[in-house]
Amino acid sequence: MMSPSQARNRGVPETIHLTERSFDETLAATRGLVMVDFWAEWCGPCRAIAPVLEELAEASDGRVTLMKVNVDENHGLATRYAIRSIPTIVFFNEGAVVDRVVGAAPKALLQDIVNGRA
């Protein structure tokens, strides 16, 4: 029997939660465009943009993978990528940063980046 989240996502992979220990290896093993959402539990705009990011990843037919980094639990990654404000979405392709968006950006802006990079 499927869990409610599996049924809701109809086989779409769950969002990957990265830590300082798993970040480099997971990123290196992931093909295509990766959206990394730097967020925190207490951040209202982070919660607002999360479903938009999930929709973009789902609609990409596997071209885009969504990953999340909780900045409260992973200070080193936040420092490494100069995250000064959240949400910040950093786009990676083949391990390299190719774009970044700070704040709860409109879906159309994020879609344009996905369309241009994935």
Quick gist of this model?
The chain is built from 5 helices and 5 strands; from the N terminus they run αβαβαβαββα. With 118 residues, the chain is of the alpha/beta class. Strands 1-3-2-4-5 form a 5-stranded mixed β-sheet.
Descriptive keywords:
about 120 residues, alpha/beta, Glutaredoxin, five-stranded mixed sheet, 5 helices, about 25% strand, globular, disordered N terminus
How many E strands?
5
Count of individual domains: 1
Question: Count of DSSP helices?
Answer: 5
CATH level-two architecture: 3-Layer(aba) Sandwich
Helix fraction by DSSP (H/I, runs of at least 4): 25-40%
Biggest β-sheet: strands ordered side by side in the sheet: 1-3-2-4-5
CATH superfamily: Glutaredoxin
Percent strand equals 25-35%
Rg is 14 Å
Helix/strand order: HEHEHEHEEH
CATH topology (level 3) name: Glutaredoxin
Mean pLDDT over all positions: 89
Highest CATH level, the class: Alpha Beta
Biggest sheet, open or closed, and with what strands and sense? 5 strands, mixed
Parts with pLDDT < 50 across at least 5 consecutive residues: 1-10
Class by helix and strand content? alpha/beta
Characterize the overall form: globular
- Taking the alpha carbons of the first and last residues, their distance comes to 34 Å
Overview of the structural elements:
The protein has helices at residues 4-9, 23-28, 44-59, 75-80, 107-117; strands at residues 16-18, 33-39, 64-70, 88-93, 96-102. The termini are far apart. The chain is α/β, with parallel strands linked by helices and 118 residues long. It has a five-stranded mixed sheet with strand order 1-3-2-4-5. The chain has one domain (13-117): Glutaredoxin (3-Layer(aba) Sandwich), CATH 3.40.30. A hairpin with a 2-residue loop joins strand 4 and strand 5.
